[in-house]
Amino acid sequence: MSTSHSLFEAALAELGRTVTRIRDDDIERLIERIAQARHVAVFGCGREGLQIKGFAMRLFHLGRSVSVVGDMTTPALGPEDLLLVTAGPGELPTALTMTQVARRAGARVLVITAQPAGSVPAAATDVVVVPAQTMADDQGDQVTSILPMGSIFEGSLFVLFEIAILRLKAKLGVGDAQMRANHTNLE
Hints:
Domain SIS: 30-174
Strand content: 5-15%
Strand order of the largest sheet: 2-1-3-4-5
Pfam family, one: SIS
GO molecular function: carbohydrate derivative binding; isomerase activity
Organism: Pararobbsia silviterrae
Helix content: 40-55%
Number of domains: 1
Structural class: alpha/beta
Low-confidence stretches: none
Family: Belongs to the SIS family. PHI subfamily.
CATH class: Alpha Beta
């Protein structure tokens, strides 16, 4: 049986191999789309949704206009807006519907996925590929991760989002004090 430390090492090595395979031009496109958007709405299902909600919080700390789809304060999207969707398996009916609605309203849609041939990325204006196992390929011969189901994709989202925040912070000229000032005082 493996020790916790050996499992930590294996999981972190796997995470490192995954995130270093994300194409830099994909990351640059993610940053550009967010920087150009009047408003960013984010959407993700399940554990991916938890990761993208954390990203929305950091975008808010950067001073961006941002909302989480499903919150009653999410505005209507239009031509100057961005819907940012995580769809690791590429085939999530709710994500596909959100993508189609946003596109019909004229918004850009950037999908982050491990399965770029899926219906959700196919309906988007932009796609960022995170080459990781998801629930679409976590069984049989396809298993590539020691972590269960889509955990390596979800962990990779966290790292990708933190790097995107660092890059956006520099691009937008936002300092630590400004981010801290945007943090809630109701905790």
